[in-house]
Amino acid sequence: DGACRTSVMLTNGKEEVIKSCVSLPELNAQVFCHSSNNVTKIECCFTDFCNNITLRLSTGKNNIKIWGPVQLTAIIAVPVCLLSLALMVTVFTCHGRQRANTKAKKHSLEEVLPDHTFISSGKSLKDLICDLTTSGSGSGLPLLVQRTIARTIVLQEIVGKGRFGEVWRGKWRGEDVAVKIFSTRDERSWFREAEIYQTVMLRNENILGFIAADNKVDNGTWTQLWLVSDYHEHGSLFDYLNRYTVTLDGVIKLSLSIASGLAHLHMEIVGTQGKPAIAHRDFKSKNILVKSNGTCAIADLGLAVKHDLETNTVDIPLNHRVGTKRYMAPEILDDTINTSIFESFKRADIYSLGLVYWEIARRCSIEGSIHEEYQLPYYDLVPSDPSVEDMRKTVCEQKLRPNIPNQWQSYETLRVMGKVMCECWYANSAARLTALRIKKTVSQLSTQEDMKI
């Protein structure tokens, strides 16, 4: 707030520095210069205040513009926002171009590479599956081949409907195939069934032959979920038994093939190319197909579960009370099944297998005599569309099972089959037969019939 004055004086040959300060706005400064060894003389005078200098200093504040918080924020934010916007535009532009290129390549691939590019014209489906599965992992055709097949199928006629959607008969290069079209709300079932069918080493003559899975866009508006498999003109075992009767040999052939398919499904193959154990969980006559040679193939694996050998657990924690109520095992009906043990699901399948055997044996015709008309299990004990409570009262509380006719005891095949059924229906699931044991028992019946012939 002021200025200082410094004076240098020589007194008796000595230098004295005198400093005094005065307030602004005016400052009077006096400088005395005399000859001295320590002072450089530039311009001097020899009277008091002869070199009086008046300094005028500005007392006003500096004209420096100070920015407030709002202005500073604006100065920083605006460039940052502009830079971010430019970056976002660049990213979206690049992404859009990438998607466009991918789509263009996809359409180009489908147009330029017809089905014969991947599949030689002389190959049948049987040859194709045999070549590509025996030389590989055994888990099914490559995805590109599956898509190529699915998109060159021509649908012919609808042959069935179910909770999942529809089943069509289709044509691929003149061969009949079955096309199971799922509704979009059942995408999880479609994906699960396709996954199960492509399990390593699952392919077996008594399990429905899987060909392809594809999600097709129909007319560009909605998506169809396709599952392509072998076509069997007889349809399901339920349909077959409603239309036809079977001989004793036919009973054995149907029963043995079903047991063989279930045994393979339940079997765990350990190894690098091993197969996990699989439980069906919806085993019934409508989910078994009859082939032209009189044997069966197990189908509809959308509710199946696999056993994880490493962790000893079931691979998906779905609700365990699934399937068809009429075929549910007692432990499922009364909710006592131990879902943490995979064997529980296999034993529930065995209970259902016993009911399927009962359906088959009732339609056995010996010497032209039809024993029984076709009926579903428990037809005389529960309503046509029974609830879980209806089945629980009948199976768990009253402990009732389907009737075994007395005349079955007159024929060895039917007698043994009746005994097998009863051993499948035990309330104690641990006491039930295994699929492999049943297969061996029925196989012995087949041998006996062959010896008679």
Automatic annotation (TrEMBL):
PROSITE patterns hit by this protein: GS, PROTEIN_KINASE_ATP, PROTEIN_KINASE_DOM, PROTEIN_KINASE_ST
InterPro entries associated with the record: Activin_recp (IPR000472), GS_dom (IPR003605), Kinase-like_dom_sf (IPR011009), Prot_kinase_dom (IPR000719), Protein_kinase_ATP_BS (IPR017441), Ser-Thr/Tyr_kinase_cat_dom (IPR001245), Ser/Thr_kinase_AS (IPR008271), Snake_toxin-like_sf (IPR045860)
Domain GS: 123-152
Gene Ontology terms: cellular component: plasma membrane; receptor complex
GO molecular function, one term: metal ion binding
Classification via SMART domains: GS
Biological process, per Gene Ontology: apoptotic process; cellular response to growth factor stimulus
Reactions catalysed according to its record: L-threonyl-[receptor-protein] + ATP = O-phospho-L-threonyl-[receptor-protein] + ADP + H(+); L-seryl-[receptor-protein] + ATP = O-phospho-L-seryl-[receptor-protein] + ADP + H(+)
Keywords: Apoptosis, ATP-binding, Kinase, Magnesium, Manganese, Membrane, Metal-binding, Nucleotide-binding, Receptor, Serine/threonine-protein kinase, Signal, Transferase, Transmembrane, Transmembrane helix
Family matches, as Pfam families: Activin_recp (PF01064), PK_Tyr_Ser-Thr (PF07714), TGF_beta_GS (PF08515)
UniProt membrane topology term: Single-pass type I membrane protein
CC cofactor: Mn(2+); Mg(2+)
Binding residues annotated for ATP, in chain numbering: 180
EC number annotated for this UniProt entry: 2.7.11.30
Coiled coil ranges: none
Transmembrane segments: 66-92
Function text: Serine/threonine protein kinase which forms a receptor complex on ligand binding. The receptor complex consists of 2 type II and 2 type I transmembrane serine/threonine kinases. Type II receptors phosphorylate and activate type I receptors which autophosphorylate, then bind and activate SMAD transcriptional regulators, SMAD2 and SMAD3. Receptor for activin AB, activin B, activin E and NODAL.
Subunit annotation: Binds the type 2 receptor protein ACVR2A.
Protein family: Belongs to the protein kinase superfamily. TKL Ser/Thr protein kinase family. TGFB receptor subfamily.
Record's protein name: Activin receptor type-1C
Gene that encodes it: ACVR1C
